[in-house]
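Hi, can you check this record?
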Amino acid sequence: MKQTIVTRHKVGNIDTWLKGHKDREKLFSPVVSSFRTFQDTNDPNSVVLVFEDADMDKLGAIINDPKNKSIKDKHTVLEPIILSLQIAL
């Protein structure tokens, strides 16, 4: 089922991370229709990505795939990466 998924994580260097936007588009575009990027107002190294029409299993597989560690390292992504789903009320 496709849904909106929110991820949150910290980065070691926000400027380095921001420069990697095209890499993230390429990495995630096969499993999401789009995503938006946010930065916490009280912590410039804390970021949120909101993925639209995402396949949770496929997105999680990309995020947790060991072969993508080099991309995370290049972009200074720090673990943990927290995934959140919208609750249907």
The chain has one domain: 2-85. The longest helix spans residues 56-64. The domain at 2-85 is CATH 3.30.70.100 (Alpha-Beta Plaits). The chain has a mean pLDDT of 95.
